[in-house]
Design a protein that fits this description.
Blueprint: E1 3-10, E2 13-20, E3 28-34, E4 37-48, E5 56-62, H1 84-97, E6 107-117, H2 123-136, E7 147-154, E8 157-162, E9 177-186, E10 189-200, H3 202-230, H4 244-253, H5 255-260, H6 267-284, H7 290-312, E11 327-331, E12 340-346, E13 349-358, E14 364-366, E15 374-376, E16 378-383, H8 400-414, E17 426-435, H9 440-454, E18 464-473, E19 478-483, H10 487-492, E20 495-501, E21 506-513, H11 520-544, E22 558-563, H12 569-573, H13 578-587, E23 591-594, E24 599-604, H14 608-620, E25 628-637, E26 640-646, E27 649-654, E28 675-683, E29 689-692, H15 693-696, H16 700-704
Helix pairs in contact: 1-2, 1-8, 2-3, 3-11, 6-7, 8-9, 13-14
Length: about 725
């Protein structure tokens, strides 16, 4: 086997790139290691496609063996559909490398990232750097390299951590991770950002991005040295050019409409304009590929929209560059059955968020190569039906875009969720995109906030999100940042920069671009405009609902919490689960969840939770002298009666403890099944319970009509005749 290894110190660890002949049929391949984590990246270019878009596919393959464990369901111990984590990691790679392919390229390109080993470091950073090296050293046309790094901050420490470990990124264990930033870029520009944060200030984010830029440039220099040594000659590619006739036709058919529009091109007019162009041009030029006709139209509209913003400070809908579209917020009022709802409008983007509360047992179990045996108690799922854009199409199922948008909104809201000891519920939000014209993911954040507050979830503060855009002329060094981009500005613009946060700071960021990258100074401007817009949106949200409702829905399950000693857990569960299953059946409770520390969450409706709580409390109760009970007589002996005082316990009422006077026979006072009041008088040296009726109720015997010495002979017997207490 042939191989050569290149190494770089980054973040206190060695990153290595091994070039070998493992995948020598691919156009490019590389094995990248960092710590005990490793990925294999391959890049292959296929045939020319007849599609009207660049057919790039990025596959992020998580292999169970990479975690050194046999994972998967009990019925299929092998890899199936990609996990959400795999989809999100693949999207990071895709969003980073896609802008660097030549415009107009239609050859199929597939990049496959195979996770071979994973331990202390997340492999998504490795994946970007490996994909870059595989593409850059191949003969596939591509304007790389591009590099990636992760920056973290821990609670109580402002120091920036380069490529933090999983433990350093943990949100629950102290010290908590305050920020997790993934940045990708090249040549002093940033072209992809992912951030999850606990209300981090914009200035700290800018500091972290600046640090990421420094580390990226180190990796860039390393990659360039490898490429200079091993890089293959790139295949020739020249983007197809529009014919003079096609340009003339556009100037005659479309250009006058653009001029007459005065710069206002709403989404409703762009679609029909393009349809007319495609129909007319394909009929006039039947030998010209449809892809070229379409591509030239898009190129010219791009140029028009860019010129409008850069040189005239205008937008296609007539707004100012920093102006937010009309806003609307509604908390509740959709259905009495749903536990919480939120409706949010931003212009023509409309989102409904529906929230359901469940018990701890409703948590999602996570079992992937990254996270084993963990539970997810806050979930946000995002739906994007075709009617939201006025189209027909397939309904149902999930795609990568929907997974990504839902994960972003979930990340933005998650850090504001209360702790389990304050609010032990499992929370699921479903975002229904009803109408879309730009940034449904950020509208989902706003609608989700409204639903949480309507449901009475005690979130620390409301969260709002906004999507920023950019129009740029890199050659001229001109950039214009746009607030609240709509569909045409997203489609024809150069940047999609989503920022979510509270009044106190940022909770989530996501950015991707269609150009090589964005300067840090432009990102700083975008952060400032995003904050201004976020405050405006938060004002609308808090005007609708100022704080979470004080009560949850009557239709939501009730959760009662009980803490028992660890050595009592087995008692509650019982042999083979007999005890806990019996409690469930008797009370009709929805769920009983027992944590390892002895915390028990009881979830139920219509009094079932209270009934189960009482049973478990009685079962695990530690009895004290003086405790009062009321229970049935379960056994009668010559010397007294045994009374049940708990699910598994009984105690003796000696005949002398029935009345304040001497009685003859115990059967003159009680019979099997009688319910009697008792008080715990003594716990003897053998742990047996001695009870007293007369101490619990001195008048009980009189009400029963008992009289001194009633019944004749003395059959009291001795205490030593008492059998051991039943357990």
């Amino acid at each position: 086997m042939e191989k050569k290894v290149y190494s770089l110190e980054i973040g206190g660890k060695t990153m290595s790139a091994e070039f070998n002949d493992w995948a020598d049929q691919a156009n490019g391949s590389v094995l990248v290691r960092y710590g005990n984590s490793a990925v294999l990246a391959t890049a292959v270019m296929g045939k020319e496609s007849d599609k009207d878009y660049f057919p790039l596919s990025v596959e992020y393959e998580e292999k169970f063996y990479a975690a050194g464990a046999i994972l998967g369901s009990r019925f299929m111990r092998r890899e199936g559909r990609p996990s959400d984590e795999a989809i999100l990691s693949g999207r990071i790679v895709d969003r980073t490398i896609r802008p660097l392919f030549p415009k107009g390229m239609k050859r199929e390109v597939q990049v496959i990232i195979t996770v071979l080993s994973i331990e202390e470091y997340d492999t998504d950073i490795l994946a970007v750097n490996a994909a870059s090296l595989a593409l850059a050293t191949s003969d596939i046309p591509w304007n790389g390299p591009v590099s990636s790094v992760r920056i973290g901050i821990e609670e109580g420490n402002d120091a920036l951590i380069v490529n933090p470990t999983y433990k350093q990124r943990e949100e629950e264990l102290p010290p908590k991770a305050l920020m997790d930033l993934t940045a990708c870029g090249k040549d002093g520009l940033i072209n992809m950002i992912e951030v999850g944060a606990r209300e981090i200030g914009e200035s700290m984010l800018e500091k972290a991005l600046a640090r990421s830029g420094e580390e990226i440039e180190k990796i860039q220099a390393w990659q360039k040295s490898i490429i200079a040594e091993r890089g293959k000659t790139k295949r020739d590619f020249k983007a197809p050019e529009a014919t003079p006739e096609l340009k003339t036709a556009f100037a005659e058919l479309v250009a006058p409409k653009l001029k007459a529009s005065g710069g206002k091109l709403p989404k409703s007019e762009l679609g029909p304009m393009k349809s007319e162009w495609m129909k007319a041009a394909t009929e006039k030029f039947p030998d010209v590929p449809k892809g070229l006709i379409d591509g030239y139209y898009e190129e010219q509209i791009d140029a028009f929209v860019h010129d409008l913003a850069i040189n005239e400070n205008k937008r296609v809908d007539g707004r100012n560059l920093d102006q937010v579209r009309p806003l609307f917020a509604q908390a509740g009022g959709v259905s009495p059955v749903i536990h919480g709802t939120g409706i949010f409008y931003r212009g023509e983007t409309h989102v409904l968020a529906a929230l359901t509360l469940g018990g701890p047992g409703d948590a999602q179990l996570i079992d992937t190569i990254e996270f084993q045996d963990s539970k997810k108690t806050f979930m946000l799922h995002y739906n994007f039906p075709p009617f939201s854009v006025g189209e027909t199409g397939r309904v149902g199922g999930m795609n990568r875009r929907m997974t990504g948008h839902g994960a972003l909104a979930e990340k933005a809201l998650r850090v504001m969720m209360p702790s389990k000891d304050v609010f032990p519920y499992t929370v699921r939000i479903v975002s229904e995109c009803l109408a879309s014209n730009g940034s449904t993911s950020m509208a989902t954040v706003c609608a989700g906030t409204l639903a949480l507050m309507d449901a009475g979830v005690p979130v620390a503060r409301p969260v709002a999100g906004i999507a920023m855009g950019m129009m740029s002329d890199a050659k001229a060094g001109k950039y214009k940042v746009l607030t609240d981009i709509q569909g045409p500005e997203d489609h024809h613009g150069d940047m999609d920069f989503k920022v979510a946060g509270t009044s106190e700071g940022v909770t989530a960021v996501q950015m991707d671009v269609k150009v090589d990258g964005v300067p840090l100074k432009v990102l700083a401007e975008a952060f400032a405009q995003a904050k201004k817009a976020r405050m405006q949106i938060l004002e609308v949200i808090t005007k609708e609902i100022a704080a979470p409702r004080t009560n949850i829905s009557e239709r939501a399950p009730k959760i009662l919490t009980l803490v028992v000693k660890k050595d009592q857990i087995g008692l509650v569960i019982g042999p083979g689960g007999k005890m806990i299953n019996g409690i469930r059946e008797r009370t009709g409770v929805d769920d009983i969840t027992i944590e390892e520390d002895g915390t028990i969450f009881i979830t139920g409706k219509s009094g079932s939770a209270e009934a189960a709580f009482k049973e478990i409390s009685d079962l695990t109760r530690e009895y004290m002298v003086g405790d009062k009970f009321e229970g049935p007589v379960v056994r009668i002996m010559d010397f007294g009666a045994f009374v049940k005082i708990g699910p598994n316990n009984d105690g003796l009422v000696h005949v002398s403890e029935v009345a304040p006077f001497r009685i003859g026979k115990i059967t003159d006072a009680v019979q099997l099944g009688d319910i009697v009041p008792v008080v715990l008088k003594e716990i003897d040296e053998k742990g047996r319970y001695n009870l007293s009726i007369k101490a619990a109720d001195p008048e009980w015997a009189a009400r029963k009509g008992l009289k001194p010495d009633q019944g004749g002979s003395d059959n009291h017997g001795g205490r030593n005749e008492r059998p051991n207490r039943r357990i």
